[in-house]
Write a structure and sequence with these properties.
The complex is a heterodimer of chains A (about 110) and B (about 110). Chain A has strands at about 5, 10-15, 20-25, 30-35, 45-50, 55, 65-70, 75-80, 85-95, 105, 110-114. Chain A is mostly beta strands and about 110 residues long. In chain A, strands 2, 4, 5, 6, 9, 10 and 11 form a seven-stranded mixed beta sheet that branches. A four-stranded antiparallel beta sheet of chain A has the order 1-3-8-7, with no helix packed on it. Chain B has about 110 residues and is mostly beta strands. Chain B is about 0% helix and about 55% strand. In chain B, strands 2, 4, 5, 9, 10 and 11 form a six-stranded mixed beta sheet that branches. In chain B, strands 1-3-8-7-6 form a five-stranded antiparallel beta sheet, with no helix packed on it. The chains are: A mainly beta (about 110), B mainly beta (about 110).
C-alpha cells in the first residue's frame, strides 16, 4: 500500500504571492487533514476534508483554502503569502474523519516566504 | 493557556537512562490521546496510543490520568536511536477528530 505523498518537497515564494500544495492520501483513506508546523513548534491544525467537503477548520484566516478531489487527493492553497507563513506543511490521511483509525503523515512541504 | 502543554526540554541523557516526559491538556472533553515521535526535519509518526489503564510497548510505557488531565511517557534503557522530538497529542469529538499537538520535547541520547 502506498503512503501519503506531498509535492513539492521545498518551495520558495515571495510575500504576496499565492501557493498550491498537493497531497495524495494513503490508499483506502477518505479523509485528509492539513497542518502547519512552524520551526520549534508542534503542528497546528488548518482544516480537514472528508469525502470532498470541509469537515473542520482550525484558527487560520480565509486566505488558507483547500480542496479534496474524488480520488481523495487534496490541495492546500494560500493566498497573499506572509513571512509568517514560512513553515513545514504536513498532510495527513485517515479513514472516517476521526483519530480512531490513526493518521498517516506525508513528509511535508517546506515553504519559505521571502 | 495552551490546549496541550509539555515539558520544554531538551532532555540530554546517556544511553541506558530512563527518561520521563509529562504532558497536560486543558480540555476535559478530550477523547483520544497519543504520543508521536518526530525526527529532525521529518514527519510525525505515531509512537503509541494512550489508554486510561496504561499501556506498554517494549521499552515504552504510557499513562493517562483523566482526573488530573495528565499524560506521561516513560522510556527505559534509552538508545541512541530514541533521539527525536516527542509530541503529546489529544483529540476531542467537537473537532471532528483533528489532532491537537503539544510543542514537543526534544530528547538527545548520548553515548
Amino acid at each position: 500500500e502506498t503512503g501519503v505523498t506531498q509535492s513539492p518537497t521545498h518551495l520558495i515564494k515571495t510575500r504576496g504571492q499565492q501557493v498550491t500544495l498537493r497531497c495524495s492520501s494513503q490508499s483506502g483513506h477518505n479523509t485528509v487533514s492539513w497542518y502547519q508546523q512552524a520551526l520549534g513548534q508542534g503542528p497546528q491544525f488548518i482544516f480537514q476534508y472528508y469525502r470532498e467537503e470541509e469537515n473542520g477548520r482550525g484558527n487560520f484566516p480565509p486566505r488558507f483554502s483547500g480542496l479534496q478531489f474524488p480520488n481523495y487527493s487534496s490541495e492546500l492553497n494560500v493566498n497573499a503569502l506572509e513571512l509568517d507563513d514560512s513553515a513545514l506543511y504536513l498532510c495527513a490521511s485517515s479513514l472516517g474523519g476521526t483519530a480512531y483509525y490513526g493518521y498517516t503523515f506525508g513528509s511535508g512541504t517546506r515553504l519559505t516566504v521571502v | 493557556r495552551k490546549e496541550v502543554e509539555q515539558d520544554p526540554g531538551p532532555f540530554n541523557v546517556p544511553e541506558g537512562a530512563t527518561v520521563a516526559f509529562n504532558c497536560t491538556y486543558s480540555n476535559s472533553a478530550s477523547q483520544s490521546f497519543f504520543w508521536y515521535r518526530q525526527d529532525c526535519r521529518k514527519e510525525p509518526k505515531l509512537l503509541m496510543s494512550v489508554y486510561s489503564s496504561g499501556n506498554e510497548d517494549g521499552r515504552f510505557t504510557a499513562q493517562l490520568n483523566r482526573a488530573s488531565q495528565y499524560i506521561s511517557l516513560l522510556i527505559r534503557d534509552s538508545k541512541l536511536s530514541d533521539s527525536a522530538t516527542y509530541l503529546c497529542v489529544v483529540t476531542y469529538g467537537g473537532s471532528q477528530g483533528n489532532l491537537i499537538f503539544g510543542k514537543g520535547t526534544k530528547l538527545s541520547v548520548k553515548p
